[in-house]
Amino acid sequence: MVRGATRSVTRARQDYVKALYALGGDRVNVTTSAIAVRLQVSAPSATNMLRRLAADGLVLLAPGIGARLSAAGRRTALEMVRRHRILEAFLVRVLGLDWAVVHEDAEVLEHHVSPRVLDAIDRFMGHPAEDPHGHPIPDRRGRLPRRALVPLPSLAAGARATVRELRDVDGRRLPRWKAAGLVPGAPIRVRDVRPLDDVFEIEVAGRRLAIGSEGLAGVMVELRSGGPRVR
């Protein structure tokens, strides 16, 4: 990873490359509308910024299809992801803030902490491998471990799994997941699935929870005991 690469990139550009990465833009083209929705901006604003990013060499544009990150854009995005996740870990582990609400604080801080301070924070915490939501933290070279995760709503009745990551764009479901015990590392069992009613009955932390697929969207799990049980 290029150290200090984000110093010469404006905050708006940093937000765009990170949003593109979150939408899979390091592998596939992402539509302008998807980027606009993610960043809560208008489609024309997104189009204009993507053109600037392309001129800067951070994005590759495919007219009528969308945009994807260039190699330089991916490096910048991963540095921002690393910053964000280290800061979330710091806010929770050291400052004792609730992990369900630290996303917004990390969004602000990630643009202003110097590389030297970020390295000191990382070192002070013993180089954490994950943020409080279970997302792996890229190392200083931008490397991430590969994990075979599946969405919890894709599991069939009888499946057993372990919660690994909580992916929630706006953070509204994080407090509910936390209260229900759906936290990274929690073992779960799918007791029943009623597709027509869109109801999942799962057992987590010794309790049963009945919830719809939308309420579980973003809970990523690792299957265990007996192999895949996916619908």
Shape: globular
CATH fold call of one domain: SH3 type barrels
Which structural class fits the helix and strand makeup?
alpha+beta
Biggest β-sheet strands, sense, barrel: 6 strands, antiparallel
The neighbouring-strand order within the major sheet is 3-8-4-5-6-7
Unreliable stretches (pLDDT < 50, length at least 5) are: 1-5
Strand content: 15-25%
**What is the typical, i.e. mean, pLDDT?**
90
Helical fraction equals 25-40%
Let me know the number of strands. Answer: 8
CATH architecture of one domain: Roll
CATH homologous superfamily classification of one domain: Ferrous iron transport protein A (FeoA)
Topology order in helix (H) and strand (E) letters: HHHEEHHHEEHEEEHE
Assigned CATH class of one domain: Mainly Beta
Number of helices: 8
Describe this structure in words.
The protein is an alpha+beta fold and 231 residues long. It has eight helices and eight strands. Among the domains are: 69 residues, Arc Repressor Mutant, subunit A; 75 residues, Roll (SH3 type barrels), CATH 2.30.30.90. The strands form two sheets. The protein has a six-stranded antiparallel beta sheet with strand order 3-8-4-5-6-7. A two-stranded antiparallel ribbon has the order 1-2. Helix 1 packs across helix 4 and helix 2 packs across helix 3. The relative contact order is 0.12. The N terminus is likely disordered.
